[in-house]
Amino acid sequence: MGEQNTTLQINSQELTIDTQNPWMDDRLDRKFFADHLTQIISRQVNPCVITINGEWGSGKTFLLKRWQCELAKRQYVSLYFNAWDADSIEQAPLALIGELYGFLKDCDKSVFGELINELQESCSKLFRWSSLTKIISHKIEEGAGINVESDASHCLDEYVKAIRQKKTLRKVIEGVAEKVFAEYGKPFVFIVDELDRCRPIFAIEILESIKHIFNVPHCIFVLGVDRDQLQQSIRAVYGDIDSLKYLERFFDLDMRLSCPKIRPYFNHLYNKFFPKGSEVAHYIVPGDVDGRFRTSLLHICEYYELNLREIEIVFKTFIAVLNFQEIQGCSYPILLAVMIVVRLKAPTTYLNFVNSTCNPRDVLDLRFKRDGHLPQCFGLVMATIYSSYKSSQDELPFDGDIKKLLDSNMWDIKEPNNNNSTPEHIIPRFVTEALAYRAEVMEKNQRRPEFNPALHFIQPIEEYDTPTMRDKVELAKYLDMIS
Predict the structure, then answer these.
(1) CATH 3.40.50 domain span(s) along the chain
(2) What is the pTM of this model?
(3) Burial tier of 210 (Cβ tally within 10 Å: 0-12, 13-18, 19+)
(4) pLDDT tens digits for 382-397?
């Protein structure tokens, strides 16, 4: 059996949490948020439901799992429940109660032993009612004969018992929370994650169970959700209603987990997909010893204003394309990154870009055409885009013939604004100054400074093998196999 290739993984392995130092890999500063959350729950006596609202990729799961470890260090009793893992269970209340039951069985029997038995008994009686009504409904659907009088009477009797058992069950849960508070002087914390990813009806039933069964003193629920997605689930079940108003009756406090800034999140993903010390960097970008690809990819994500979900899609798509056996490394990684982003943001422009039937400037202008400015260090990306319109490497050598670009109508000619303090960022003056600077340096035979914005268009073109139209079409063959 051959050795497994772990170089190009589309899904990276989840990092193991150090329970003694859970925040050691906190690159997005989520501990600051967690500390304030702990302060809030430490003062709560009455039942309370808190939502951690954040969009996909904002780090909710990262936060909640590490926060649970932090709570354990502070002698809180907490339970982490991934609702999505239980999504296949038909009865959502059973999933919540079952999670609590399993948790208590692993705890100190001397503290919770009697409550465990009571929880099991009350739960079994409560769900007997639900099973009975389904049996009768099934009989009716199948056209089977039923004794209306006896079955209805039995059903009503079971309903009365179920209501009583529901109250009993709530008393048992209240007893659990009281035991925790008496033992540790802190509330019992029930963490529910991934609720917005569940089936709409399952998510709603979880919320209703929290409200009607677990609403007891000293019990705090903390839910990690994307509220926009959860509102869509509400509308999927109840139609066009005020889903925000509907959700407000379940939540006592809504905390907003702000999206991380692009650069820290990008660096987190880059290190996650391309682990330092592995051979992946050389495999993806042979010879990229100065990290030029990493820098260019960051600028692409920033320039095209990708959100967190889109940035991760770019990484996964990039790795997926490289997994095709025909590709041994990637000769034009920057072009591939641009193509992935353009396809993501504007599919029609992507098709025109691949076929070279649109202006290169159209690819740059996907950023909602806000202005005529381009960021620093974007020269290599620009050179890659323009170069991919060449039919061959010899058609337009970028190392000494940039002037042809200026003379063509590819650029939007704009005079710098008098109020602009950074005219070197404006095209084409930026390129013109770069040409002038290069001529001056070559004439004086001086060593180039370590960093100068004007060089970031010229120098990369001189040292980098730029792609052609054929290279772009070839990459599109692989990229178009991924939906």
Answers:
(1) 31-256
(2) 0.70
(3) buried
(4) 778 877 877 755 544 3
